[in-house]
Amino acid sequence: MSLIDSLPYPMSAAEVRGLTDADAIAEAHHEVIAQRSGTEVVPAMLITTERNSYAVVEDRDADRYRVLDSGDRDDRDDVYATLREWADEHGYGGPT
């Protein structure tokens, strides 16, 4: 099972921040936070490991997260731009 496949869905902002407790994850940043039925949900996040960066978004139909884009750690800005574009297209506006 991959790192992203092992993420619980849905996750709150606190749970996303807690991902950095794992040895494999250097940084985890929730891009947006949504409220659904009174529950906080993070639909999009940027995860950085020692070698890679991942734009991770929700797949609500499958009740899981999926990788939208990824690249080397040096590609973090490009991966983030893809994530930001997805958030804008899905009506999440500016960063939280």
Written description of the protein model:
This protein is of the alpha+beta class and 96 residues long. The chain contains 2 helices and 4 strands; from the N terminus they run αββββα. The chain starts with 12 loop residues before the first helix and ends in a 7-residue tail after the last helix.
- Can you tell me the residue ranges where pLDDT is under 50 for at least 5 consecutive residues? none
- Order of strands across the biggest sheet? 1-2-3-4
Please tally the β strands and state the result: 4
- What percent of residues adopt helix (DSSP H or I)? 10-25%
For the sheet with most strands, the description reads: 4 strands, antiparallel
Approximate strand percentage: 35-45%
Q: Helix and strand string, N-terminal first?
A: HEEEEH
Number of helices: 2
